[in-house]
TrEMBL record:
It comes from Bauldia litoralis. Keywords: NAD, Oxidoreductase, Pyruvate. GO terms for molecular function: NAD binding; oxidoreductase activity. This is Glyoxylate/hydroxypyruvate reductase A. It holds the Pfam family 2-Hacid_dh_C.
Amino acid sequence: MTSDAILIASGPWDPVPWAAAVRALAPGRAVHIWPDLPDPERVGYLMAWQPPPEAFRAVPNLKAIFSLGAGVERIVFVDDLPDVPIARIVSDDLTQRMTEWVVLQVLLHHRRQLAYLDLQRARRWEELRQPAASEVRVGMMGLGVLGADAAEPLVRLGFQVAGWSRSPKTLPGVEGYSGADGLDAFLARTDILVCLLPLTHETRHILLMDLFGKLARDGALGGPVVINAGRGGLQVEADIAAAIGQGVLKGASLDVFETEPLDPASPLWGLDNVVITPHVAAFSDPKALTGQILDQIAAFEAGKPLKNLVDRAARY
């Protein structure tokens, strides 16, 4: 029996647009939406975002897994994960969207836009001091495809940009730091911390009070700002709220959370100088991304290796 059907297990995302995109681009290929599985043995490919563990167990002839988003932590940490290749989404559309969000958030805090919105609501005409970009030190935590792309326009705008990654990386205009030995020095020179790390055992809850206390306190913004569009599991939200309240952090922009949607009772909602967006920084557009997945499947069936594979040991 040929196992060439596709199963879509998109968790909280609406699976219908993904299935529609597959059917439009590959009308001869069977596509099913979890948990509707008329013939489980025919399924060879899983398109997944936060899939239930039982979805993996239900398809015995699985050949490959394709993440529908940039993150893969809801896949790689599943117990008894099938021993098949896992491919991440890497697309110009997704990367561009993330870069737009990161630059927007950096500029919101740098240009004091949140304070100006408060003044607008109060009908007050007041000029606030805004330092030049060249006075502000941005630290990119994570220099993968998304982090490297977001760093480039920040360099062009004139910010002092540094990057920290697990292993040394060299990017034009970006001061490099790496490994555990380089983390404290990286934090000490950072006014705006942008976190785009993957979620691993080593990075889980890395954004906590101890780290916030190591950020620069002598910067032009009057205190450090944290921006996280990486993974919700990277941050300790109680520590972010406490750090804002105690003045350890001057502000924050958060697109990802430990539990989504964010609880309406979370104190983060009501904090001044905090921006909350509902995991939309790098929105996965089915029409833009499905073609890439189908091209990968076609190449794989022709005997070619898959691209953008996840390192199962490193979990990203």
